[in-house]
């Protein structure tokens, strides 16, 4: 079975892909009624360029919402990479190889960005022309709390201690995530910015915790 047939077989299973746009194939020039995000020309089976300027949600074929389903996102990611992986194009034309490399790294970037609640939020703000200002005012007491948490993570020795801190911190991020979702839903971008600037601190603690978990060789 050709890659294309495989793809269309998969596509048929997912109604989210059932969206058509008209393209001209860069290779054979024919019009292609392309499923979005279909990857290949239906005439000559050549890989197509990613749609220019398409946002990461559309690129990944998931609904554009802050409450994106991480399992669905992961599934889409695997599906796309299955077809786009540059190894699959080793025997194809040079230009196809280059497109697959670019497309594949774009999909990696989109996946990474949408997977984490912080980067997803920042990305959605950017789609709305907003950014988190560098010098957001932060409550002094909150900063103290964060500094103390940092020290706790640094001095945590046992697996039990670090996993308890992990759980506590993940719960904080989860709670903020819910608030960000509501703020996006209500179109309150000022509040989104405020919440995400707080989430930044917990995301950095999370990084610290995950590094510690890895260095301690804890298997979860
Ligand atoms: Zn073609």
Automatic annotation (TrEMBL):
It comes from Chrysodeixis includens (Soybean looper). This is J domain-containing protein. SUPFAM superfamilies: Chaperone J-domain, HSC20 (HSCB), C-terminal oligomerisation domain. Gene3D superfamilies: DnaJ domain (1.10.287.110), HscB, C-terminal domain (1.20.1280.20). Belongs to the HscB family. Residues 55-127 form the J domain. GO terms for biological process: [2Fe-2S] cluster assembly; protein complex oligomerization. NCBIfam families: hscB (TIGR00714). GO terms for cellular component: mitochondrion. GO terms for molecular function: ATPase activator activity; protein-folding chaperone binding. Keywords: Chaperone, Coiled coil. Residues 148-179 form a coiled coil. It comes from the Eukaryota. Transmembrane segments: none annotated. The keyword Chaperone applies. It holds the Pfam family HSCB_C. The keyword Coiled coil applies.
């Amino acid at each position: 079975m050709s890659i294309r047939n495989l793809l269309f077989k998969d596509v048929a299973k997912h109604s989210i892909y059932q969206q058509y746009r008209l393209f001209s194939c860069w290779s054979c020039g024919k019009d292609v009624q392309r499923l979005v995000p279909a990857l290949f020309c239906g005439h000559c089976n050549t890989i197509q360029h990613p749609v220019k300027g398409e946002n990461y949600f559309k690129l990944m074929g998931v609904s554009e919402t802050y409450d994106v389903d991480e399992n669905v996102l992961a599934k889409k990611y695997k599906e796309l990479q299955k077809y786009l992986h540059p190894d699959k194009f080793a025997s194809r034309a040079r230009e196809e190889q280059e497109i697959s490399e670019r497309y594949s790294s774009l999909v990696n970037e989109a996946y990474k960005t949408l997977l984490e609640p912080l980067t997803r939020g920042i990305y959605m703000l950017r789609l709305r022309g907003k950014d988190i200002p560098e010098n957001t005012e932060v409550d002094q007491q909150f900063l103290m709390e964060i500094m103390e948490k940092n020290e706790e993570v640094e001095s945590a020795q046992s697996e039990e201690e670090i996993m308890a801190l992990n759980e506590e911190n993940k719960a904080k991020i989860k709670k903020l995530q819910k608030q960000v979702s509501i703020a996006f839903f209500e179109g309150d971008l000022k509040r989104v910015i405020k919440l995400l600037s707080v989430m930044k601190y917990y995301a950095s603690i999370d990084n610290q915790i995950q590094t510690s978990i890895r260095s301690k060789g804890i298997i979860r």
